[in-house]
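This follows on from our talk about sequence and fold. I would like you to pick a protein and set down its sequence and fold. Go ahead and set the record down below:
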Amino acid sequence: MLQNEIWDDHAALSYDTPGSGMFAPTVLGSTVDRLVELAEGGRALEFAIGTGRVALPLAARGVPVSGIELSNPMLDRLRAKADEATIPVVVGDMATARVPGSFQLVYLVYNTISNLLTQAEQVACFRNAARHLAPGGRFVVELWVPELRKLPPGQQAMVWESATGYIGLDTYDVLRQQVVSHHFRFDAEGGREARMFRSPHRYIWPAELDLMAELAGMTLESRHADWVGGEFTAESRSHVSVYRTADPL
């Protein structure tokens, strides 16, 4: 499926979960705090801005935020919260779309770079970030670490979360670095039917990300396990990596 087919009206209407999940204050607050720090008073650009989960609180903290978004239904949800003058958005692919001006910070959160399904597209995304950045600017990527060590030999699927009313599992194609995430949600009343949402991804190892950054003229400045600066180790399930363009001479 194409990304604009996945992020349709239904997905957009069910995306926001105020106060819980990725919208929980502990998750969102630390994300915004770190991005405010990295912006250093300059302009910020969010690739795949979605419904404004991060952009709106970041703008409320005084950081001018623009965005790129492929899905019109997701953008419609954002527009119900903020107009074009408040959060300017260009409709297009984050690997190629161009936003006027330069930025101190470009950021790509919550595993979204993996929505680009080829290595070439992901490299192009890094290069597009570099094109938007001022000298000394930063590109921030939040991404999960593939948990292939937990995948039993000879099997392609792994359950990564099981909770009341919800099961999440991934199916892997390790030859092509492809994974499809399946999200099953069950009725609270204990009915027999479930709602399913699937999304394809190309998973990326941290070292591969670093090479993509180098190809785009950026270097790794820091990598932590989370937004509050936790140490990144072999056991970390995700990371926040900060890349930087060269400072002006």
Observations:
- The longest strand covers residues 133-144.
- The helical segments are 3-6, 9-15, 25-39, 55-60, 72-79, 119-132, 206-215.
- The first helix runs from residue 3 to 6.
- The mean pLDDT is 90.
